[in-house]
Amino acid sequence: MTSGLTVAGVDYEPVIGLEIHVQLKTVTKMFCGCELSFGDEPNSHCCAVCLGLPGALPVVNERAIHFGLMIGLAFGCEIADRSLFHRKNYFYPDSPKGYQISQYDVPLCLGGQVGDVRIHRVHLEEDAAKLNHIGASGRIHGADRSWVDFNRCGTPLVEIVTEPDLHSSEHARDWLRLLRSTLRVLGVSDVNMEEGSLRCDANVSVRPVGSAEYGTKTELKNMNSFRFLERGVRAEIDRQIGLLNAGEPVVQETLHFDPTSGDLTSLRSKEEAHDYRYFPEPDLVPLLATETMVAAARADLPELPADRAQRFERDLGLSAESARLLGFRTELGDYFERALAADGDDPIALANWIPPLIERIGSDQDPADSKVAPESLAALAAMVGAKEVSRDAARDVLTKLVEEGGDPREIVAREGLGALSGEDGGLAALVDAAIASDPDAAEEVRGGNRRAIGPLVGYVMRESKGRADGGEVTRLILERLQTG
Predict the structure, then answer these.
(1) pTM
(2) Under a CB-based contact definition with an 8 Å cutoff, are residues 214 and 205 in contact?
(3) Where are the domains of the chain?
(4) Residue from 374, 310, 313, 383 nearest 348 by CA
(5) Rounded to an integer, what distance in angstroms lies between the CA atom of residue 205 and that of residue 5?
(6) Terminal-residue alpha carbon distance, the chain
(7) Nearest to 291 by CA among 457, 59, 54, 81
(8) Higher pLDDT residue, 139 or 96?
(9) Quick one: DSSP state of residue 116?
């Protein structure tokens, strides 16, 4: 976590708010009947309405409204009985009308909270077209050119604006993960960041710790991965602290972070609301969210990640940290529950095997796509619980499962990784050898210094190649040395 930011003896803290644009998973666009597409032939899904041709009139997508209501209810927002669409005026090649239809001072949803971050507003709007720049410099035959693909133009968007409740780049990254999981569970978007279905802007400032006043904020635009967001926000925090250290002011502006070079470049001075000359969209009537519409949206709400985490903690006894990991990351929670259904005797022990699995397959991978079946992980956890295999040996078994899949019991038998026990003589013999190998440590333990047992336990674990159970080894050593 970014902390310890000190300038001239004053400690500073970052203050971060996010603006997230989410493409809704509707069949058609926000205000016309054109089908949504990704990767289709450019300009093959557009019409007079989304191209802004004279005389074309927009019609609101009912499904987009339903999804917007679901999001607002899931976040605990106040749903407006009556909301308005506005024209947000700006001139850019990706905006064929010269304005964007959005919501301004009377949005669909206000307030609410996701995790530990408050929501300021949730509103509906349409997406812009996509600019395709030719080559690294956009140069063709000596001329600078960009091509406009209007297929994306008019795609239904929900913009989610948070309060400035985030205070580190890591916090911002983790919260965006929770938001994406929540939206995915709701089924309102595929939230595919690589395809631009979820894009994030970050407003970043720093202020003295304890101050109620905000510093001058800057905006980082269009970050489309968690790592991108984390690195960009961290770089901007460092830049602002560097300016303050040099006695220079932070200027309000919009910035671009290049994830390849790590450089921040200024795009333009930060716009204010009056720069867009908002006014009510004259071709659309006010949006009335009736009780029937709200009830239908509420009926479609599934169990949300935050609720799932609470259930894991309350009903299964998982730690808060483990419950958040499995609840907030939908794919991990789904995998865990399938494993739990296969062998649910000890959910805490089973949950503790999820992080080692993630380490081996990659932190961003879905375990369902790995070679380790949920039933196999459950079986491995059960074997450890029954002391059929030591925890150290089980880690080696897990590595084999990731590489080749299969049944953990077969791997244990094939690799000779079954646990040694005191009853079969194998473990007892190793304990006797450990005591004989280090009589000084044995004498200290016999004299009451139990901390001296470490070398003796280490000897057994090393010689058994991890097959011995550490607790059983300790018990046998103390029994042999009659320390009680």
Answers:
(1) 0.81
(2) yes
(3) 5-299, 305-415, 426-480
(4) 313
(5) 12
(6) 46
(7) 81
(8) 96
(9) T
